[in-house]
Amino acid sequence: MLASAGESGRKMQRFVSEDLQGSVEKARAALEANDGDAWDGVLLFDGRIPIGDKKYDAVIIELRSYAFPGAEATLAVPYTPLSSGRFKVHKPKLLQWHECDDFDQTAAIQAFFNGVDAHAEGSKVWTAALDQSV
Hints:
This protein is α+β, with helices and mostly antiparallel strands. It has one domain. The protein has helices spanning 20-33, 105-118, 120-129, and strands spanning 2-6, 9-13, 40-51, 54-65, 72-80, 88-89, 93-98. Strands 1, 2, 3, 4, 5, 6 and 7 form a 7-stranded antiparallel beta sheet that branches. It is globular. The model has no long low-confidence stretch (mean pLDDT 92).
């Protein structure tokens, strides 16, 4: 999913195909192109990340602020799928903070959590499934 915000408001676009990698690459190209002349853009996709000696499913979040060309940040929200017996959401992990010297990292992370809290249903799921042990 690709989301953006700009003068014309907020937009969301889903990139769906049978090939996850192909969908992600198309969405990533759209994120980089910024054809909608957005101020900010974010790409979300399902992936896996290593934490310690284990791999976790995670929602990968690639962020861009188009006013700062070259600035790229990537977060991952690891989770344990429902198929394990209990759905769990783990602490977000900062994977990349590239050319983001003009940004306050703490404020950016807080903005992420403000977004979680602003989504009424999503914040309920997040709170009920939160497992900060990972």
